[in-house]
Amino acid sequence: MAQQLDTTNAPEFTELSRLPAAGRIVALDPGTKRVGLAVSDELQTIVRPIGRIDRTSWKKLLLNIKAIVREYDAVALVIGLPLESDGSESVMSAEARSIARKLRLSIETPVFLQDERATSYEAKGRLWMQGIDTKESRDLVDSEAAVIILEDLLAKLTALRNS
Predict the structure, then answer these.
(1) Coil, strand, or helix at residue 19?
(2) 44 — alpha (psi -120 to 50), left (phi > 0) or beta?
(3) DSSP for residue 117
(4) Among residues 117, 126, 127, which one has the least CA distance to residue 149?
(5) pLDDT of 12-50, one tens digit each?
(6) Which of 27, 89, 94, 129 has the least C-beta neighbours within 10 A?
(7) Pairing assessment for the beta strands 34-40 and 47-54 based on DSSP bridges
(8) CA 141 to CA 125: how far, in whole Å?
């Protein structure tokens, strides 16, 4: 169940026409303790989880993200924007926007925000459907949520390019 929801992002984070038509995109699902990671293939059709980063400080987070962008030669970075179910902002929305702004100032790779309402629930459901037990799914849910965020962005991008 992909989430094709619109967000009220600032234009600098939503102008999908700025996204290159080819090249890997890295997705982040930011949490208070961990950041889930996912990456697309170069054709931007397949997404896979690539683990998670523990959040200890901004400097370490930035260094890890820079290394991942470099490792995958990413052409863009997408960050999950955790809005409330009614679309309003939350404390974590402000945190995601802050991360996006800081990254935009710190890396040359374009940064985008993508609505991620309920992705953690969907991620838990996907892992459960794969037969992964609750204890093991705790280690995988962040990166699976990043997969959903990136799949949603790619679906939106495909619709835009086909219109």
Answers:
(1) coil
(2) left
(3) T
(4) 117
(5) 455 777 788 899 999 999 988 999 999 999 999 999 999
(6) 129
(7) antiparallel
(8) 10
From the list 109, 116, 121, the residue with the least C-alpha distance to 146 is 116
* Arithmetic mean of pLDDT, 3-14: 44
> pTM for the complete prediction?
0.83
Q: Which tokens go with 87?
A: 């679309």
What digits encode the pLDDT tens for the residues 102-140?
999 999 999 999 888 666 666 666 767 777 777 676 767
What distance in Å separates the CA atoms of residue 25 and residue 95, rounded to the nearest whole number? 21
Distance CA 77, CA 65 (A): 9
- Which residue type, as a one-letter code, is found at position 151? E
Beta strands in 89-136 (DSSP E): 111-115
Q: What are the tokens at 7?
A: 């967000």
